[in-house]
Amino acid sequence: MTLLTILALPASASQAIVGSIIGAGALTYSKKIMMTVGKGIVPLDPFSALVTVLAEALALHTFTIVLLTGMTAVGFILEYRLKEKLKTYLTHEAFILANVIATMVPQTEKTVTLDSFCRKYAIITDVR
After folding, report:
1. Element housing 86 (H / E)
2. Could you give the C-alpha distances from 89 to 5, 44, 82, in angstroms and in order?
3. Contact in structure between 113 and 106 (CB atoms under 8 Å)
4. Which residue from 10, 20, 79, 92 puts its CA 20 to 30 A from 121's CA?
5. Largest Cα–Cα distance in the chain?
6. Which positions ≥6 away from 105 have C-beta within 8 Å?
7. pLDDT (tens digit, 9 = 90+) per residue, 42-88?
8. Domain range list for the chain
9. How far is CA 111 from CA 47, 95, 116, 121, 123, in A?
């Protein structure tokens, strides 16, 4: 079964399949990690381990919304500040470029001088 076929199933069937996959992963891959935490780092009896897992699940469920909201707010603030700094920087760079170009453009209306400048500019910038 591919991910697309799982997603196309009704919600209850998809949840059952994904839950089975997560459960299989927890029983096979995570056993070594659980044993290290439950016996190697802090010795836990089965009841203490159950209380630990339930408290972890409750804390995760409770604070996930708070954390996501906080991260979203921080993301919006950072995006706004980044846009403002980028706008200021680009405006500054555009003024510098405009000043450089203004000093390079000949201050004359003679077509020969302007034509020569335009040809040189086209060669340098590869713009026609």
Report:
1. helix 46-104
2. 48, 57, 10
3. yes
4. 92
5. 94
6. 117
7. 777 888 878 877 887 787 777 777 777 777 777 787 888 888 888 88
8. 9-43, 45-128
9. 92, 27, 8, 15, 18
